[in-house]
Amino acid sequence: MTDAQNPEPTSTVVWCESALLADGWARGVKLTLTDGRIARIDTDTSAGDAQRLGPALPGLGNVHSHAFQRAMAGLAETRGDTGDTFWTWREVMYRFLERLDPDMAQAIAAMGQVEMLEGGFTRVGEFHYLHHAPDGGAYDNPAEMAVRMAAAAEETGIGLTLLPVFYAHSNFGGLPPSDGQKRFIHDVDGFARLVEACREIVAPLPEAVVGVAPHSLRAVTGEELTAILPLAAGGPIHMHVAEQTKEVDDCLAATGARPVRWLMNHAEVDKRWCLVHATHINATETERLAKSGAVAGLCPVTEANLGDGIFPAPDYLAAGGSFGIGTDSNIVIDAAQELRTMEYAQRLTKRARNVLAGGSRRSTGGDLWRAATVGGAQALGVGRGGLRRGAPADFITLDPNHPNLVGRSGDTLIDSLVFAGGGIDTVWRHGQQRVSGGRHHAREAITARYVQTLKALLA
């Protein structure tokens, strides 16, 4: 094989005034980035000829995103005649999909991914259930919409964990889907073909992952769940569960068990799984989920926006549970704001402060960022997460001169980022700098395309 076919590894060396490494904070950190990974870490060093950066943190994984919903932000905030709930919001979402074509879906996904990278996320778990044309028929390429999600990720540079969604029914008992759900629906054989196509589609992307996502117990029968789980082939398995009290009540009426209990009694829920929301779980389910090794996929901003409820985080974390954070409906895309909302929900419930800190004299922001790093990486199928030798070179750096970060160091930097906001300077994904001065390098072109898309979509 020739040298042209076997190119030398390409390396970049950056120096960070401090960095949150997998084993703690260090100062004067020099990172050697080779072929998208951290090949070497040196601490207590001078910068030399390396690119100088501010304090570094591992980028977070966004464990749950519906890309197309980014374009709906702010469009469902008018009160209806009979009050509003998740279920009335869902009807608005169905109507929004009536005109969305593949070009529009790609433009919206790219805009959302730009904002994810600027907001501290370096990988996204795309819970991908928009499969078909507006009339419910298949595109010429049945995986066309998955192609568009991968194309957006290629343009923006974000890490992609693609989670094709199996969706077959409108409610428990295998009820037929509603007209608004026609773009989501598959049978088992068609879904198996989609999953295989997704693996081919993402193969050119660096460190892309494919899993499977049975949408929810109301959309998937027990028999269908058993049939599709092997399609994960060792990859991640994500599922909505117990997001709404109505869902819990309907599950009890149909099966005699609450959703989390039913799922754990009928499937091998383990470290491959991410149970999205899991909002309405009782004490037994909380401990059982924590002990399973699965990740709770929490989306605090969306859960607040939709009026879902509040996850029992203190009890879950006390039982040793893992969590990741997601942006779900993408009404706001900001990793720090997700963690802030997670903590503030507990403060309002408990009428206390620093509820989710890991113990006395522990930093709330620091502990939440560390936990979301580890849980997010696990849920998205990319190992342990964190800045360590051999790990993906996916990290953010902060501007130490930002008004909210001046004079801070260590975990106080993270506390200020999470609770005061702002200050992300650069973002690196797979060893490449994608964000400088807080702005994605392709923001201008992607924003222009997104604006034209919205004008056409909302005309």
UniProtKB/TrEMBL annotation:
What's in the keyword line of the UniProt record? Hydrolase, Metal-binding, Zinc
Gene Ontology molecular functions: formimidoylglutamate deiminase activity
Transmembrane stretches, start-end: none
The segment(s) forming the Amidohydrolase-related domain are 57-431
Q: Where is the Formimidoylglutamate deiminase N-terminal domain?
A: 12-53
Pfam family name, one: HutF_N
Name the Gene3D superfamilies for this protein: Metal-dependent hydrolases, Urease, subunit C, domain 1
Cofactor or coenzyme needed: Zn(2+)
Q: List, alphabetically, the NCBIfam families matched.
A: hutF, PRK09229.1-2, PRK09229.1-4, PRK09229.1-5
* Protein's UniProt name: Formimidoylglutamate deiminase
